[in-house]
């Protein structure tokens, strides 16, 4: 059987992926905190895990992909105070926008998209288990996880004791037994959202949310967990600690998730893209500017998922050229017969993606296939190339729209009457053998951003 290799953050090695249950491969990726628009770093995570899901679907009959919505968190409370809007209004609005934006980028909806606020009883049950197992304690209205109680803490991130404390400095408080301890439950004031609990009126800490949602919807252990590299510490480290210790598996870090996958940072001039640094670009803004979602997706896949991707205008420019070339090739092949690839041909086409989601090589292969089409091969060779291009592009997450629709994207803003008039005049000039005038009219169309193609059925046009 074809093997998928993934770099496992837990072992720090590229390994052959072996599912726990081939009849249902289960993966979880940490979703957004919904108080604002998603920036491109958030979008990269969504695109990477959508790609991973698609690749898994080429190998296994059922893939269950869960990605949560964090709808209770201090940033949401702060936004509500700043705007005067109810929290529920804010979280519902930005959840809808996030899902619409990610769909525009070619992402499938997760199989399961749980809300944190729907899982408070399960969070309280896990907190109680951690207290009973000697890994958590109550202090000053809080419940905290005691990091020194878990000897394998740091196993995912590789951070030593000093680095763990440094990473927790922002949360150091007098009621902590240890500076690295982290909050499982915190008190809420009367004007803050909260729930009754054995520890008082309060709300969950961020880390406990994903532990509980992953366990409830995927069962433990499950196959793959991950997200952006910034989540490795402390968020994912804390998830492992909570889940292993709540179930008495302190010696087995894989008792929560077997494989951990993390995508690299999106950077701007070498610095991580983030809202705190103010150097972020919103996926929503790019879409509003009229950049097609598939072009943004192509730009996010140009670098291998584990590598940093430096974002600049050239990313969009190159991605647009590549995406248009692929769609144009498929449009030119629209009359070719559709053939079914055999297993060997499928594996050949998808082989870069089976090697740790090597999207740059997959895109390079698409370039090569398109180049071979332009060399005017035989009809049988064209049909084979069309099948390979279609399979590889669909697995990369493109072609939810047909080629003609993509090539005409944005044409609603064009003066179509003028375009058709110029094409008509050009055809008249050609018929009268006035080729100088015909060429001048073609150039005028090109200056308008319009490319034309003469076919047996007439002249067709599309945006360049």
Can you characterise this structure?
The mean pLDDT is 92. The protein contains 16 helices and 15 strands. By secondary structure, the chain is of the alpha/beta class. The longest helix is centred in the last third of the chain and has 20 residues, at 313-332. Helix 6 (206-218) packs across helix 7. The chain has a 4-stranded parallel β-sheet, with helices on both faces. Strands 5-6-7-8 form a 4-stranded antiparallel β-sheet. It is 45% helix and 15% strand.
- Report how far apart the termini are: 42 Å
Helical segment tally? Answer: 16
Number of strands: 15
Helix-residue proportion: 40-55%
Q: Note poorly predicted spans.
A: none
Main β-sheet, in a few words? Answer: 4 strands, parallel
Strand order of the largest sheet: 4-3-9-10
Average pLDDT confidence is: 92
Radius of gyration: 26 Å
Amount of beta strand: 5-15%
* Net shape: elongated
Quaternary: single chain
Structural class: alpha/beta
Features:
464 residues; alpha/beta; four-stranded parallel β-sheet; four-stranded antiparallel β-sheet; 16 helices; elongated
Summarize the model shown.
The chain is of the alpha/beta class. The protein has helices at 40-57, 74-83, 87-104, 120-132, 161-167, 206-218, 232-246, 283-288, 293-301, 313-332, 343-354, 359-374, 379-396, 403-407, 416-431, 435-447, and strands at 5-8, 13-16, 25-29, 63-67, 136-139, 142-145, 182-187, 202-204, 222-228, 257-263, 266-268, 271-272, 309-310, 450-455, 458-463.
